[in-house]
Write a structure and sequence with these properties.
CATH topology: Metallo-beta-lactamase, Chain A
Oligomer: single chain
CATH architecture: 4-Layer Sandwich
Structural class: alpha/beta
CATH class: Alpha Beta
Number of domains: 1
Distance between the termini: 14 Å
Amino acid sequence: MKLTIVYDNNEYTPGLRTAWGFSCWIETGETTVLFDTGGDSPTLLYNLAELGLDPQRVDIVVLSHIHGDHVGGLAGLLDTGATPTVYAPAAFPESFKAEIRERTDLVEVSGPLSILPGVSTTGQMGSGVLEQGLILETDKGLIVMTGCAHPGVVAMVERAKEVTSGEVALVVGGFHLGGASRRAISGIIADFRRLGGRQVAPCHCTGDLARRMFADEFQEDCTLPGVGWVLDLTATP
């Protein structure tokens, strides 16, 4: 399995474009999954080209939630001729779902769902902005990926453990802590430790303060990723 962040507002690899939003390219076996599509297609497609990633290879798109910084690049991706199966929360607006169905296959997600062997969704969660996270099962443990974690990043990690009964190796993505207090962030870090999370890679909407606090707590087990960051689990240790 190999992960590449292809859209983020944090810089990591020089030469790639940053913009508010998130998207991660996931290679698992013979299947390529794109988790979220960023906020606009020109930035997404530019970064894919710079990274040598062909949009035609995308087999599945998983959308975390309806906000534009996570679904904005989908239309442009489909304009390339790609026809991935799109997994979206059932709570998405009917008009948006209809637009997807006109162009490709759509799977509406309510509860936890296995998408591929070793790849599952938490199911839509929350009471305000409904959102789903992605769960990747690896030899090293679970990777839990969040778009913005509107339902609460701790709740999403808890759901991931319930769905798979596995131990959490890494939590990556937006943690939605940009406006959180130091005290609130400390509580979330303590919850991560309680849940057994070994490594973290906070980006997108996590916020600078929270990113610093996670880095201080987790030390070498914290990565501060951005666009262009790669985690290659197929590489030789």
